[in-house]
Structures
1.
Amino acid sequence: MSNYRRPLTSTLLPLLLLALTLAGCAGLERPAQESSGDWDTHRQQLINLNQWRAEGKVALRSAEGAESASLMWQQHGEETDLLLSGPIGLGATRITSDGTHLDINRGGELQRIDISSPDAIARATGWDLPLAALRHWLKGAPASDLAIQAIDLDPKQGLLLHLRQAGWDIHYQHYREFDGVSLPTRLHLKRGSTEARILIAQWQLPPDR
């Protein structure tokens, strides 16, 4: 196993997604509050959904530049398997995590990050990003270990429209139903000069969930 450090500009997209893995609406920010009824039912459905596969695309823009890639994300409890490939020109990147370590495998080169401490990602990459967040946000649910700073719900369907956690604004722009579960297919994440647009073409859920 060989350790390596590439320049930040060459690992911008994988590292941002890694940190989020373990990790706009106009107007005034609303105080954090949640409605009952449909949202409570839907949120519990998402909490119980801890095994899934999502396929789509992601585009990232920040002060460091802009990149895009196709993604295939598989989640099984705390275990993450994320494959990034496409026009970023760096070859396929596979990211795996057991909730304690992050492994980045690109072109046969492996980097391992111990994420047992909250600031591990920031120390290793320079990115000050939340851990254990994106796998919840991607489903359309708040991360359970982060305070909700603002939340906006669709009053008719009980779906999440806007969420703010850890200084990130997550806007949900479209949902589709997959195997009886309404899941996001288009979302926008932004904090400061960093933003990511994610399009999910297909969700696959276990039949016995």
2.
Amino acid sequence: MTEVVAVVLAGGLARRMGGGDKPLRLLGGRPLLAHVLERVAPQVAAVILNANGDPARFSGFGLPVVADPLPDYPGPLAGILAGLDWAAAHRPAAATVLSVPGDGPFLPPDLVARLEAARRASGLPLACAASGGWTHPPIGLWPVALRGELRAALLAGERKIDRWTARFGCATAEWEALPVDPFFNANAPEELAAAEALLPSLTAGPIG
């Protein structure tokens, strides 16, 4: 498997959370971002954070912070493009970028391996995660070689991930959603409270 760079997507406005940075909200006494990094970092060669505004607020994590390459918060595709551009400039050996949300504290430890296996088995260039009958387009593998096409699509107004990936073909890797959905994300205060309640059920080991 080729070298993989992960981009943690935190460039949105967090309207449902009341604004601010979702990855800095606390879960079990630690920022959501700390949970994400704990699960993702062992699977990849490097991790960067896609976030807009003053990067100093994330300085404690020691990550490169890369803003959207387009203005006006165009959505997760822009954050993925930021990751592809960073990988091309700083990790030329990395042919692939993994994208994950900054509010997903239960990501599986075999995320990269299973996405890559699905991509290879299908012969398709892209792969995304699925669980409980739902696909999760922001959680996937992206070839750095497609960054030119993605930039052109964004400049043309494309904002939907699955519509863009359909142009090239996207494999799906499925995970069980029980006892805890590994792709649970804390978009709103009540979901953060639900994640807090789920933490004890994870003490027996990683899910996935």
